[in-house]
Amino acid sequence: MKIRIDGINFDAPEDFTILDAARFLGLDIPTLCYHEGLSPGGNCRLCIVEIGNRERTKLVTSCTYPVEEGLVVRTSSERVVKTRKMILELLISQCPTSKVLQDLASTMGLNKVRFKGKWEYCINCGLCVRMCEEQMMAKAIGFVNRGNKLQISTPFDEKSDECRKCGACMYICPVVTLRCHGAHPESVLCNGCYNSLQPTCISNEDNYNCWMGLKYECGTCYSEESNT
Question: Which residues, 6 or more positions from 47, have their beta carbon under 8 angstroms from its beta carbon?
């Protein structure tokens, strides 16, 4: 499949997703509910990218979208970055104590959460459900209800005979594994590990990608238009 991703022409295998192609080329796309050992879910939406020509584009989850002939992808356009930050704001407001989420905020340059913290212990990413079913072969837990009542539980909220108490669901959970003790009700966002290095090219080029060292550090910003 001949695709173009961040200005790079690439012959991608037919079984690749956009995320596979991006990682093969060393392009950074943040993920949360994706795990190489599990089937893709696309629940968290953090891995969204922009596909299509500039006149007619749309956002899709890169972990679930298969490559196709002539596909044009932008992994870090201004629209993509703004949407990812909005999604991360919502996730952090739901579970401020997740160090995984707080670290993502620092990495992505998010310094403000505009939503009131709910201080829950689940973001419904589905990693534990897929881990239990696909790796542990148990299916002891699953999603119940819909909308704002969606939650993960055992069948009929009763103790499951299929559960072996292996702890795999806790091991893979991005909320339970590591806790951030810097978040507090007044601000929700910790920023204790905040990366103050901010992009300077995205506002001018509507896209960025740096090839040497940390993003924005090398100064050799790639421009899709000028191809330099």
Answer: 19, 29, 30, 31, 32, 34, 61, 62, 63
